[in-house]
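[Meeting: bench + compute handoff]

Bench side (C.D.) handed over the final construct sequence. Compute side (W.E.) agreed to return the predicted structure before the next meeting so the bench team could plan truncations. Sequence as handed over:
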Amino acid sequence: MSTLLSSLGRWSFRHPWRVLVAWLLVLGIAGGAALALGKGTDNTFKIPGTESQAGLEQLERTFPQVSGTSAQFIVVAAPGDRVTDADYKAPIERTVKDLGDVHGVLAATSPYDEHVTGMVSDDRSAAIVRMQFDGQASDVSAATKDTLRTAVSDLEKELPSGSRAVIGGDLFSMSIPAISITEGIGLVVALLVLIVAFRSFVVAGMPLLTAILGVGVSMAAIFAATAFAPVSSTTPLLALMLGLAVGIDYALFITARHQDQVRAGVDPEESASRATGTAGSAVVFAGITVLIALVGLGFAGIPFLTTMGIAAAVAVLIAVLIAVTLTPAILGFLKGRVAGRPVRPRRPRKGEKEARPRRPFSERWVTGVTKHPVLVAIAIVLGLGVVAVPAANLALALPNSGVQPQGSEARENYDLTAEHFGPGFNGPLILTGTIVTSKDPVGLMKDLGDAVGKLPGVAEIALATPNQTADTGIVQVIPTTAPDAPATADLVRELRSHHDEWLKEFGIDVKVTGFTAVAIDISDQLGAALLPFGIFVIGLSLVLLTIVFRSIWVPVTAALGYLLSIVAAFGVVSAVFEWGWFADALHVARVGPIISFMPIILMGVLFGLAMDYQVFLVSRMREDYVHDAGSRSDDRAERRAAALRAVRSGFTGSAKVVTAAGLIMFAVFVAFVPEGDSSLKPIALGLAAGIAIDAFLVRMTLIPALMAILGERAWRIPAWLERILPSVDIEGEAVERERHLASWPGDDSVVAADGLAVAGIVQGLDLRVPAGSALVLTGGDGTVRRAVALAVAARVPSEGRLRVAGHLLPGRAAWVRAHVGCVLVDAERDESADPLHELRDALRGRTSLVVIDGADRLTLAQSEQASAMLRDAAERGPLAVLATAADAPAAARLLADAGWADPRIRDLDAPQPSSDLPAQTTTDLDEVSA
């Protein structure tokens, strides 16, 4: 992957206009699609497979008057007045009649209707008018909402002075999130951090520009997707928040590596290529971890949350793609102007002849941490444990009007209803069931209502009635507690526990539903999904980090650090939103339960970001340890000292970038807290707290301490596990290998191999095939010859040095497979398999090499046609052939007929004179085979 990214970075650097125009075209197409296809967001929460959803679907079919969304307005009389007075009753009833004629309103119920009870408060100081709509809240037009607001406003003007009329209810409970000036302050802070990190205003602005472009593409794509799937209003803001944070950070990682290399004297084009191959590889890995965690939100089985995860994953994917393409392209515009202002040399102090070099703060920090690692580790663990204490009281609920900002119409209606009628009036529950077999449906529903009314937690039964066709009945239950109170959830569970009892007594298959019940079911399902999702995330981190670092302890410490970060972040959110700490400063509208999907989103996003920092810090430590001669010593003390040096040097080398990345993410996330949407506010605070804790306390303090305690044991891995793990290059080792071997082999060989090895078959083979020449390998057995042929054609992995057609393997294996043909001629072939067809495919284009295994197995007719095809290909351009054969003369005749007058034959059963092929070491395949 690193070599592919390196080539991509070089191409982007050379063609910056093409890359920039391409991304601008993508932005234009996505924006056009959003304008043409976008249908707006949909805040309807559905949760298939639950009792509440099944109940709503049943009501839609049999009792549509109560199945759709609802709204209400409350009238509060002036002090000393009663709403039953004529001054109130007449205008309220006239307004109710007018509202009943509004498009979309199925019914508007007067509080004075003789068939309705409970809509006038006990002290006659307030009355509620309820309206039922056809469909969900998203189906009600903005014009209808404006008509309702106008009617209620006009009513308030008709009422006696001092009275209030406020609209609200489910229809007005959802607010549409919006961007405020505070989010812009986060970007300004990010820019300041970048200016300090890069010491250049121009370079500092580059990550911001690329991140904003990526966010524009992802946001347009999300709004275009509303034509095909419902997207909640919180989804775009979550994608915006994540896209900005990771977009800035990913560009920062690549640009910082590029700037360091240019300062060290590396050519800008070469530096951009290396930076994209090394830092870009880590960016891709980090992005993949975030993608997997976000897509894993589907564990909860809730459609709107799955959509939210996919949308956020799209934003992260676009950020990764822009980082590895547009970032090197913009570096191509800047050329060498990225070094920034030089650091001023330190002036000598009094009494000093020369100023001693200033030790970086990161070096002093990690030295202090690793001097007393046990004490540091204990302090961090205990400290974060204390921060996590409030998480024990974490309560979850979906947002309702009660979390809207003070002064909003929905919040005023919610508070007035709770004050005059009790908190339960803001979240009634509905019991429904089929009563088609009943002979007395009215009496049956009254008896069921009486039974329900006796349960603890029930304030009153507002309605118990059958529908017009007497096949379905409903009981509307007013709880004694608010919709998001834990006691209301307990009441729902209590009602459901009586299902069998009421089925036996009344013959009704009762379902508990309504908006409040749906919200409770969603919260319960999300809570149940936290443990499997946590196991998935932590298990994923263990697997991925074991593959990357070839270690057992590094993944374990990373996972433990992640757990500490996540529970501490939960503790911070709970302290603010449930305990009320700093609630006023952060403009928290109401202290109480936290939005249900905060924990699972926080776990998924923080996992990916934590792995970012883990990879960037610890990979540098691993690199320094591997390159330290002490790591290969037989003396354990020397190995331990080498491990400690690697921790300190690796931390010092990467701390500046990780610090800047952590500060930027914190600034972006925390900017969404003070004025953010009530649904997004706890998520943003959790992410900001989690990033600060994970980056600065866990990754930059606890992890170095634990690595110092573990010493050389941190890099151990069982041999059996090492063998089965795939090799993943996220540190750009292949790019560095290509740089070190850039001048090897130093001749015009199309194939050059030194110490070529194929696991279990070939060991230590040296080989050269000059450009335009032909070589026949013979000797050994067919397995060894085929293994060599497949290794040269990059069809099987190999070890040692191997360069084919100018491309070093295994890093450039994908290019070699695409441009070097390989023909396998078997002794017993399927009749449908045609070696000539394979050869024709292999010779397409302007390939410089073709590999033919078993050339002597071709029939006479096939050999003649193969010679003609090879001859034609050689006339188009220089062509080298590597053939293997048991019968070398037969293969040589084929090549001679094709135009190679004197093809070389390497008899691997006997020593080959070195003069036969310059710079070639004669090797017997029988000797090198395993």
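W.E. noted at the follow-up: The radius of gyration is 36 Å. C.D. will use this when planning the next construct.
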